[in-house]
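Query structure, 207 tokens:
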């Protein structure tokens, strides 16, 4: 999708509706700064307000994603292209999220690993009291404990889990992911379609 073209289209339709950036922002309960970012092509409208924006500008979502009013002759083709583009962008975003999850997890583990390797030598040599070493190791756990809920949320929402019995791909609830046995991103989950449990691998694409 061409963000610059979409931005110019939003600006054009806003002016045709005799609205300022501030007035459009007020109708959508957002800031005029967000509208400015759309119109300059620096960002796209969030999916949560896309329908409301299209209603105000009197266009379809397909028009918005194309950056122009789509005629009926090529409506279906443009709709398919836009849907494919949205799927592609989601897959790319999911890949980035899963990569970020891995990097963040490793960074949070480093203090604990460092303490587990280094502190025993200080304690054994008498250079550090055992209680102090235990306290430092406990504190080194904090980054990981704080990050775990956020890392699990990323894993839950990015991509899909694939049932090994029926092949159904789904996004489970946070609670199911949190309590599931796992080996990295492969988790023992119940399939909502066939009802069977299996070790389900994380996949990016739903196809």
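Result returned for the query:
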């Amino acid at each position: 999708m061409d963000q610059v073209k979409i931005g110019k289209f939003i600006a054009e339709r806003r002016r045709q509706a005799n609205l300022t950036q501030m007035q459009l922002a007020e109708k959508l309960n957002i800031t005029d700064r967000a509208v400015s970012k759309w119109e300059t092509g620096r960002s796209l409208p969030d999916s949560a307000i896309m329908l409301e924006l299209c209603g105000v500008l009197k266009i379809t979502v397909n028009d918005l994603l194309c950056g122009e009013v789509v005629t009926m002759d090529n409506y279906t083709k443009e709709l398919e292209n836009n849907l494919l583009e949205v799927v592609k962008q989601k897959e790319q975003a999911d890949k980035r999220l899963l990569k970020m999850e891995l990097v963040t997890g490793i960074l949070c583990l480093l203090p604990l690993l460092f303490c587990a390797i280094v502190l025993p030598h200080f304690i054994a040599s008498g250079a550090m009291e055992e209680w102090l070493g235990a306290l430092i190791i406990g504190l080194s756990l904090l980054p990981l404990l704080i990050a775990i809920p956020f890392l699990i949320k990323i894993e839950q929402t990015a991509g899909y889990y694939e049932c090994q019995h029926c092949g159904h791909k789904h996004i489970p609830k946070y609670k199911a992911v949190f309590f599931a046995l796992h080996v990295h991103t492969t988790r023992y989950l119940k399939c909502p379609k066939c009802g069977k449990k299996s070790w389900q691998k994380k996949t990016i694409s739903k196809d």
